[in-house]
Amino acid sequence: MARLKSNMNTPITLAVQTIVDRDPILAPVIAGHDVPSFVPHTNYYQELVESIISQQLSVKAAASIRKRFVELFDGIFPSPERIIDKTIEQLRGVGLSRGKSVYIQDLARHIIDGTLNLDALDTLSNDEIIDKLTQVKGIGVWTAHMFLMFCMGRLDILPVGDLGIRSGIKKLYDLETLPAPSDIELIAREYNWHPYESIASWYVWKSLENAPIGASRNE
Asked: Model-level pTM?
């Protein structure tokens, strides 16, 4: 098997090489792209608020609304308490839909009352985190998967409901129809992606021309 030319001492490059060695279908895709740069961080609260803001919007539109949202709070990203102090109409005034305004306030309430303890997320399993996050209105499994992958940096996430993943797998693995979640799980097992499902998924996204990562939500 061909070896990656990049530094093999990092978890990401080790994960990529593992997928290269295990999956001959993804290996050519990997050869044509850079090693992914997952940059996890712990600003979980802001990440979740911004995830809600950006749902079903272009990157440009989401950035514009986020800017006006922060300006509503004197240019400082608001605490949950400050968000609760605003009315739905005030939040809608910055370009948020009524639904997203409700969702952001619901997230704030979950954090304030301790129902969602963001400080404890690192101690939880993937499934436990998904269960906690999806108790918040407006946060579905897709958003939870993206949070686990791109915010927490978990390498073993398989976003089976993502339309881009379904389309990419259909194309790469020569399927007649879009795969169901169970079909995607079967392929991941067949090619032994575990524990690097996130890495394999990133390259499935990359296999789709002009398909921005994270823009293919299905919720």
From this structure: 0.89
